[in-house]
């Protein structure tokens, strides 16, 4: 009688396990790095180009449509947000303080949100916006190159996109990036 032999795992099982573990390690590394990366690394192709044409309803008056042409003549900051966006809540007090300076019109762009949720969110946290555009299905966002929230654009009086930031605004970003661009616009440069 033969002694019981230990079964060795098949080579294919070992290789499969090693590949799977390597894949998980790579995935984990990628997820960790994406949280640290510079979200501005992909510059907007809209910088120094006309803002996309759009026609969107107002969140507070869904029967009233606003077009890109309606906004011409005065610069504006367009802030993309949603009640579903945790980072929007982080940037909201910063944006509110900036809007109170009345240095430039601050418009809200509510992305892929239920109107009731968006209105409730503004009721809870305050409404810093001169008006809020509602892009419920996200179709107009495609033309803007918006892929999430928060994102913020500065559009000059001629309708040209002059600045974009992806991610939550903070005081340093406003003071070090947005304000200098606004100053150049005010100086006519």
Ends apart, CA distance between termini: 94 Å
Count of runs of 4 or more consecutive helical residues: 5
As a percent range, the share of helical residues equals 25-40%
Largest sheet: spatial strand order: 5-4-3-6-7
CATH-wise, what's the superfamily of the largest domain? Glutaredoxin
Please state the overall shape, judged from the principal axes of the Cα atoms: elongated
If you average the pLDDT, what whole number results?
87
Highlighted features:
189 residues, alpha/beta, Glutaredoxin, 5-stranded mixed sheet, 5 helices, 7 strands, 18% strand
Short description:
The protein is α/β, with parallel strands linked by helices and 189 residues long. It folds into two domains: 9-40; 42-186, Glutaredoxin. It is built from five helices and seven strands.
Write the layout of secondary structure elements.
Layout: H1 11-36, E1 55-57, E2 65-67, E3 76-81, H2 86-100, E4 105-111, H3 115-125, E5 132-135, H4 139-144, E6 151-155, E7 161-166, H5 171-186
Parallel strand pairs: 3-4, 4-5
Antiparallel strand pairs: 1-2, 3-6, 6-7
Can you characterise this structure?
The structure is a single chain. The protein is α/β, with parallel strands linked by helices and 189 residues long. It has helices spanning 11-36, 86-100, 115-125, 139-144, 171-186; strands at 55-57, 65-67, 76-81, 105-111, 132-135, 151-155, 161-166. It has 2 domains: 9-40; 42-186, 3-Layer(aba) Sandwich (Glutaredoxin), CATH 3.40.30. Helices cover 39% and strands 18% of the residues. The strands form 2 sheets. It has a 5-stranded mixed beta sheet. Strands 1-2 form a two-stranded antiparallel ribbon. Strand 6 and strand 7 (161-166) form a beta hairpin. The longest helix is centred in the first third of the chain and has 26 residues, at 11-36. Mean pLDDT is 87; it is low at 31-41.
